[in-house]
What does this fold into?
Amino acid sequence: MKRHIIYIFLIITTLGYAQDEVTFEAKVSKEQLGLNERLRIDFEMNKDGDNFVPPNFENFRVLMGPSQSVSQSWINGKRSFSKTYSYILAPKKKGTFTIKQAVIEIDSQTYKTVPITIQVTAAVDNPNAPKGADDIADENLHLVAEISNPNPYLNEAVSILYKLYVSPKISVSDFRPIDNPTYNNFWSQNMEIKRWKVENGTYKGKAYRYVILKKVVVYPQKTGALEIEPLTLDVTVDVPTNKQDIFGGRVYKQAHKTIAAGSRTIRVKPLPDNGKPEGFTGAVGSFDFNVVPSKTDLKAGESLEAMIEVSGKGNLKLFDLPKLKLPSSVEVYEPEFKSNVSTNISGMQGKITDDYTIVPQYKGKFQIPTISFSYFDPKLERYKTLTSPEHIINVYEGPTSDDDVITENNQPEKQVVNSVDSSFKFLKLTPNLQPIENQTFFGSKAFYILFFGPLLLIPLFIIIGKKKKALEADIEGTKRRKANKLAKKYLSEAKKNLGDKESFYEAMERALHNYLKAQLKIETSDFSKEKITDLLRTNKVDETVITSFISILNSCELARYTPTSVVTMQQDYDKAANTISLIDKQVKV
It folds into this structure.
């Protein structure tokens, strides 16, 4: 029985050992050293092997080695094994050098180490001094900004990922942002990260853990070399020391490091002039386009909706929709803009619409003509033009316009009056009338009110008519009033969303956008702080008011990736309403 137990134990142990994954790694004592320092390199494996072949160590002198050490242990019935070949090296000159691969055979399989890069600097004052916590943190902590496309077209989406790489040799206990990039000359949207996820990866060929701290999608608004400002963090790092506590555990030392992702440059290409369609408004991406009427049969005086819709993926918030043109016999109201756009790390996607309300005045048929929409596809690197189908609207009942009802002789057609049965009746010769007693209407108050009242109202009607004509003649003023009304509508929408950060600041940004579009004649593609500042100065707006307006825009951008309280939102709302009112009084349109 004892013999069987020993056999079973040996079989289980052998199987557990056989299932261990073979590893063969090269480890160095430091990756940066002075010319007068020494470097230790260990080639470590977890299973015994044969025919070990070291690298040639060019640019280094071998002072000692190879020295060989073997260790094995049993823990909870599981065997662990380690075999190491060690060398002590001295650099021959300054520079950046690569220690190439070592090779060994384990169970008839060939294994190789990963090459290691070593930087040799000038001689140091104290070559034998151990590295401090700050030095170890510098070597094992890195903040990197990864840019999806360093050479995009104007208004093409670019994603930026900020990754914090941490070596397994240290750990990070806390960090906080010191300086956030402002993305000047870009439209930017920060992606909210609710929980940080630690992942395994490599940095310069070495094993690291990393966390994605920040995700941003940007759309360049200018061509040429544009700089992405660095993200700067204050990081608290726990660095292991060679000391142990009374329980035998490793003692750690804290270090505070300021690290930055480094400034990056994006070179933005202009959209090509060759093949640019007429009426192109700056759309960049991949889109679908359609014009949809709510109905095609109706009576005169009834209304229908005509919706101009662009959907797809691209800079949906940064271009204007084409306009709807209809005959003068049809009354058309200013469109209501609607947006259903979401933004992720790859860019904006969704749809935007202009919803026109149309009221035909006369019986007949009129046409909603074809409308063209053009955009630039950065993947295909060419322009595309989409055209909507033609729609015929049938107004089957209502008055007929004199201009529309024409005979063959080009003369107005006479209207035929249809007689109705019993249209005329005989008068009664004996009406049998009764006198009205005590009701003398002539000379009463009601008589004079009804007689002179319309005469008194004539001047009022004349004044109202003149004012209405003046308002109708003032086309720019009408557009401005409608745009201001729309801005107030969005401000009211922002007020309803107090407490919901994303919805509040999106509504606030839409309000500012529509207001500027009306007051300064600025197009969506020109929506940059520099352009706004120049136009407000041109229109004689005070510098304090300009600064206040730009600060509101900055608040809308900053609030996307920083915590914001309800009190701050209320302050931003009040500031926006007051600033728009001041610009209304000062701007010279």
Observations:
- Confidence is low (pLDDT under 50) at residues 9-19, 404-426.
- The CA atoms of residues 501 and 569 lie 8 Å apart.
- The first helix runs from residue 2 to 18.
